[in-house]
Amino acid sequence: MAAAADDGATKPLFAGLADVSISEDIPVEGEITVPVGSNTPDEDYSTLDEPVKDTVMRDLKAVGKKFVHVMYPKKSSALLRDWDLWGPLILCVLLALMLQGGAADSTEDRGPQFAEVFVIIWFGAVVITLNSKLLGGTISFFQSLCVLGYCILPLTVALLVCRLVLIANSGTAGFIVRLLVVITMFGWSTLASTAFLADSQPPNRKALVVYPIFLFYFVISWMILTFTP
């Protein structure tokens, strides 16, 4: 009995597991992540609990920052990283309303003018985006719409200036001023959009992507230049 007890004491507890082996045909893989440190207050903060005023102000600040990036264009991913369509929608509505004002005293229906701006901006942006994707661009669909929409800001400023010039002087001098303003803002919009979209296009196909963008802003510029109240 003492010998049996000694054998039981010296025998390993999980001796039977030594004979268990894992077949080499069965892949064993995985990833174990261990959180390091504690979560910051910003990570734990939920936007669902914030007041509506804070949400609106945060979105307005984000839109304003994107407007600043457009007015001072440089190769940056600011518009691509946190894309939204609020800015393009605001600019599109402003352009449509200001261009529609030219027929305010007319007996004709003003609906087509308002719809025309929406069709040109949104349909044109969609066509440019599809063209970019077909040429091998790495930018997403909504990121492209965001950039193209926000880069209409210089042309919106041009329309405001042109309307003020028309009020002051509608003659030849006024037309020359409007022409210079529209050309400047047209170049600004084109350069700003290409600055944001340049890195997402294949190097040997950038010209094929820039050409539709050129036409897109040229049509909007022509509408602004030919606008007469």
TrEMBL record:
Transmembrane segments: 83-102, 114-135, 147-169, 175-197, 209-228
Keyword Transmembrane helix set for record: yes
Pfam families per record: Yip1
GO cellular component: Golgi membrane; trans-Golgi network
Cellular compartments annotated: Golgi apparatus membrane; Membrane
UniProt keywords, alphabetically: Membrane, Transmembrane, Transmembrane helix
One GO BP: endoplasmic reticulum to Golgi vesicle-mediated transport
Membrane topology: Multi-pass membrane protein
InterPro entries found in the cross-reference section: Yip1/4-like, Yip1_dom
Domain Yip1, chain residue ranges per copy: 72-223
Family affiliation: Belongs to the YIP1 family.
Protein name as annotated: Protein YIPF
